[in-house]
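TASK: fixed-backbone design
INPUT:
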């Protein structure tokens, strides 16, 4: 989601990492179509299998209910959800002014089909396309893909909602926005919400060159008021907001390649501050690329799983992909239901340690993707517990601890041992490591 990439490239260039494996086939098949592979190919079978599922479109699913709730807050916005997740790196990054050294481009962070095609890493990949088609206010919900660790809150596929609205950059249009701001402010002033704000524009969160500072102020206020109302809709009732105990929302300056000024929004919920979304005034280069000059506007992006886990009390992100009726039957379209765990099955921990061949590297995300391909969702988390460089041979040893635990049933020792054996075998085959 937006907030993962909030640091500027000058602070994170050291995080650019490269996938250490090479494709074993000349083609990869995705939804019945074959694509050539090359030296960048790192998409995995387990990720490919998720592409057709589209959880956010399945009636009754928690992600579908949350999506509908968000859409209800923007009734006049057009809605999109049918864009293919396969996009070019240019569309995913360059059209949105991502720096060349941004970590999102690296093979350790993103899934590439080949040098010309990848799985989108954010819904913003379609921003230029939607604007170019003439849409001036819209919501886009889609599955997005990022290589990541394995734990209760991370998954290589998740779902985002992107929202955007643009305005004519003239005094008449700005006056209409000001009137809308007054309307939104009246609603919030009479609601059970307290907002900790920051300056709309500052030296550390500047107006863009070429933007009228007054216009940028008005647009930023419209963005904040619109999203404060969304936070109230999503969390007000769940938090039990009252006049004496209102919902608390705070704004924080942020950095994104595709907006300026930029912000993150946090909500105080169940005793702690939770990061909810990122947003800002759209970079003018994005609108210029979409061939819509003399406009300016705002955009935001949020991750559905993160918010759904909070609102539905879902403890493990793997559960969203469950087909077990004990999970699915607890939810109904349009209703926020508290998830009731139907069982907690025992863990089974297995360690694997190995020497990495000289001159090669193995990123944690490489290991996690391998484990997902072999074990699927039977793994609750993976942790690197040791990284050792031999003082004489200069060889690197790593050790990972895999926590096998199904969400739906108990795993037998024989089953876990078989899976672990296949993980170890694939590790040696794919990366050429020496098992210790």
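OUTPUT:
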């Amino acid at each position: 989601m937006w907030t993962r990439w909030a640091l500027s490239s000058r602070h994170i260039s050291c995080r650019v990492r490269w996938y250490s494996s090479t494709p074993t086939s000349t083609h990869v098949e995705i939804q019945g179509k074959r694509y050539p592979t090359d030296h960048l190919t790192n998409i995995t079978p387990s990720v490919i299998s998720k592409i057709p599922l589209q959880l956010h479109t399945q009636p009754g699913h928690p992600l579908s209910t949350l999506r509908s709730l968000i859409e209800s807050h923007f009734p006049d916005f057009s809605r999109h959800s049918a864009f293919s997740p396969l996009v070019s790196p240019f569309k995913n990054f360059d059209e949105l002014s991502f720096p060349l050294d941004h970590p999102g481009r690296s093979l350790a962070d993103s899934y590439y089909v080949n040098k010309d095609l990848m799985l989108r890493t954010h819904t913003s990949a379609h921003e230029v396309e939607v604007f170019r088609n003439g849409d001036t206010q819209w919501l886009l919900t889609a599955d997005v893909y990022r290589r990541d660790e394995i734990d209760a809150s991370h998954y290589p596929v998740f779902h985002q909602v992107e929202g955007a609205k643009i305005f004519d950059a003239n005094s008449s249009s700005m006056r209409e926005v000001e009137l809308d701001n007054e309307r939104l402010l009246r609603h919030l002033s009479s609601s059970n919400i307290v907002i900790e704000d920051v300056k709309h524009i500052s030296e550390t969160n500047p107006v863009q060159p070429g933007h009228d500072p007054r216009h940028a102020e008005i647009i930023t206020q419209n963005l904040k008021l619109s999203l404060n109302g969304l936070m109230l809709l999503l969390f007000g009732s769940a938090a039990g907001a009252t006049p004496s105990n209102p919902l608390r929302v705070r704004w924080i300056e942020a950095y994104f390649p595709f907006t300026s000024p930029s912000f993150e929004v946090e909500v105080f919920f169940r005793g702690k501050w939770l990061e909810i979304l990122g947003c800002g005034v759209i970079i003018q280069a994005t609108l210029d690329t979409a061939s819509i000059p003399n406009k300016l506007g705002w955009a935001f992006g949020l991750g559905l799983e993160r918010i759904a886990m909070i609102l539905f009390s879902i403890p493990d992100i793997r559960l969203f992909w469950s087909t077990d009726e004990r999970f699915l039957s607890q939810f109904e379209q349009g209703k926020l239901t508290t998830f009731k765990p139907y069982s907690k099955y025992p863990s089974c921990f297995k360690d694997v340690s190995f020497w990495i061949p000289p001159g090669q590297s193995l990123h944690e995300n490489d290991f996690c993707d391998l484990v997902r391909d072999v074990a699927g969702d039977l793994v609750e988390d993976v942790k690197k517990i040791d990284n050792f460089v031999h003082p004489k041979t200069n060889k690197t040893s790593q050790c990972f601890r895999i926590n096998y635990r199904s969400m739906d049933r108990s795993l037998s020792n024989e089953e876990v041992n078989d899976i672990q054996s296949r993980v170890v075998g694939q590790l040696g085959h794919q990366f050429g490591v020496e098992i210790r």
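COMMENT: The chain has twelve helices and 17 strands.
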